[in-house]
Amino acid sequence: MNQPKENAGLSMKDYNHNNLCTWCDGCGNYGILTAIKRALIELELAPHQVLICFDVGCHGNMSDTLVGYRFHGLHGRVISLAAGAALANPDVPVIAFGGDGACFSEGVGHLVHAVRSNYNMTFILHNNANYGLTTGQASALTPHGEKMNTAPHGTVEELLNSMDFVFSLNPSFVARGTSGNIKQLTDIIKAGINHQGFSYIDVLQACPTYNKFATHEYLLGKCYEVETSDFETARKAAVDTSEKIATGVLYQDKTRSTFLDQLEARKGIDTRLVDEVRKVDVSALLAKFS
Fold first, then answer.
1. C-alpha 72: how far from its chain's center?
2. Which of 44, 170, 251, 255 has a Cα-to-Cα distance from 115 of 20 to 30 A?
3. Phi then psi for 198, rounded to 5 degrees?
4. pLDDT digit string, tens, across residues 39-62
5. What 3-state DSSP class applies to 246?
6. Beta-carbon neighbour count of residue 72 at 10 Å?
7. pLDDT at residue 111 above 60?
8. Considering the domain boundaries, does residue 13 fall inside one?
9. CA-closest candidate to residue 108, choices 77, 72, 74
């Protein structure tokens, strides 16, 4: 990704906003915020050169703490929003953030088709295994039997294994990190942005207020880094979290074509879809039916 040389002087301050963070003390969102800013400046991407989209949830407050082009969408719909932007102008890197509740409940259909279509964008899942904004409501990724605010006797639904689900869709890029390992997460995000296709990044994050079963210390102690290029090996390592949790860029297929590159109707066309949007006088067409 070649950017103008003047971007070489970028620093964290270029992405800092004067708005105060409103997350709870110890929230994993602080680590993810730091990692995304570090990734963008290390890629020499200025705030005006990237689009960052947010879903509804605690993570969405990040849109108030970053400088740049940000779009705060509807609950569970951030992937479809970001995919549209990525299709409209492939020259602008598009990054979308969503929570485990919004992504695997309201918006799971959008995730399915983004992976299978291989839209050229990066999706970062804030996985704290609950709906933090609605004060500890169980999500599809909350372990079975966990006692939550909305399930005081323990959740009765079975946990949806997010990694097994994503791998079943034949993805071109899958990674997992933790909010406590900022250096590794920075490298993962950079790899995801540079990947041509849909980059799925699952970030295990601490929620000190409502998630008492996956603390910051627990995650750091259980995670280990994996490097593999084999699909089945990567899937097995990602799914099995009984003893340890595999992190890193777990799988990447650089040979897959993106959605736009596969469209025959776009072959040989140099313009971007965003360039082709213009006002058209349809009065003559309407006159035929009047």
1. 14
2. 44
3. -85, 120
4. 999 999 999 999 999 999 999 999
5. strand
6. 17
7. yes
8. no
9. 77
In a domain, 135, yes or no: yes
The residues near 151 (Cβ < 8 Å, ≥ 6 apart) are 138
Burial of 194 (0-12, 13-18, 19+ CB in 10 A): middle
Amino acid at 60: G
> If pLDDT is split at 50, 70 and 90, which confidence band does 181 have?
very high
Query: CA dist 47 to 7, 82, 87, 110, Å?
Result: 10, 17, 20, 26
pLDDT class for 229, splitting at 50, 70, 90? confident
pLDDT of residue 228: 87
Average model confidence (pLDDT) across the chain: 92
Q: Which residues contact 286 (CB under 8 A, 6 or more apart)?
A: none
Please return the burial class of 245, using the count of CB atoms within 10 Å of its CB with bins 0-12, 13-18 and 19+.
buried
At position 137, the amino acid (one-letter code) is Q
- What range does the domain containing 37 cover? 19-287
Q: Which of 45, 9, 8 is nearest to 194 (CA)?
A: 45
Tell me, yes or no, whether 8 lies in a domain.
no
Express the helix, strand and coil content of the chain in percent, nearest 5 each: 40, 20, 45
pTM of structure = 0.91
Provide the CATH number for the domain around residue 81: 3.40.50.970
Q: What dihedral do alpha carbons 217, 219, 220, 224 form, nearest 10°?
A: 160
Separation CA 201–CA 177 (nearest Å): 7
Residue 136 is which amino acid? G
Whether residue 277 lies inside any domain: the answer is yes
- How many structural domains is the chain composed of? 1
What's the pLDDT tens digit per position in 192-222? 999 999 999 999 999 999 988 888 899 989 9
